[in-house]
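I have been asked to look over a protein record a colleague put together. This is what I was given:
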Amino acid sequence: MSQAIRLGISTCPNDTFTFHAILNGLIDTRGLDFQIELLDIQELNDRLFADRFDVAKTSFHAALLLADRYVVLPSGSALGFGVGPLLLSAQPGSQPVDDSQLTLCPGKHTTAALLFALFYPGTTRVEQTVFSEIMPQLKKRQADFGVCIHEGRFTWQDEGLGLVEDLGQRWEQTTDCPLPLGGLVASRQLSAETICNVQAVVRESLEYSLANPSGALPTMRKYAQEFDDDVLMQHVDLYVNDWTRELGSVGENALQELSSQAKSVGLIEANAPGLVIAS
């Protein structure tokens, strides 16, 4: 008898690349029946807080707040150097100064929002909006700044917007760590055996796509905001790396640094438990 696993992943290309084989029934799932929802990252975060998933991709900011309820899987994460969100401006050359200005972030519990709070505290007003709406709203001058993630990192220059700062680059210079954006978490209610099986299936699905990257393109196109194949593969090249295969000690150190930085500015409680990576 198969075991149902409520799985949530994002629609961004690195996730659909990683889960291509699972989404299309191309590998053995070890008796697990994955009931998959593909959602915007903030929707994933919100549903995870509401216990709607057994396993899900989530922002590491959200994962820090849920560390007592979920463990991090070793595979499936997005972290690295040169992968961070970009702070863009509607008017090239302008800077965040005060609350007469408005900055759009892609969700309260995203790592992008955490970085803006770390590096631009007490500056502009902040509103949360779906990531795919941030650049269009900036183009219409409905906001002054926006923290841009996903495919927009590669296309913002075509939209006539300005670059204020690469927030990931600031993180790297401050911490000497790769930036941990998001990862897969599993509920502590699952048995150790089930978590181990989920991890093994995710790793096999990732290896399947890495062995034949172009084979995953139809799945990536189906859910992407950008449909240009070169942009999709740029996204994969940037966000899928050795730390996606296995977080390892470098990834674990980066998560500890994120926790420390978040605690230093009160974004999580000082006595909050740390993230645990499933063995």
Observations:
- Residues 3-80+179-264 form a domain with the D-Maltodextrin-Binding Protein; domain 2 fold (CATH 3.40.190.10).
- DSSP finds 13 helices and eleven strands in the chain.
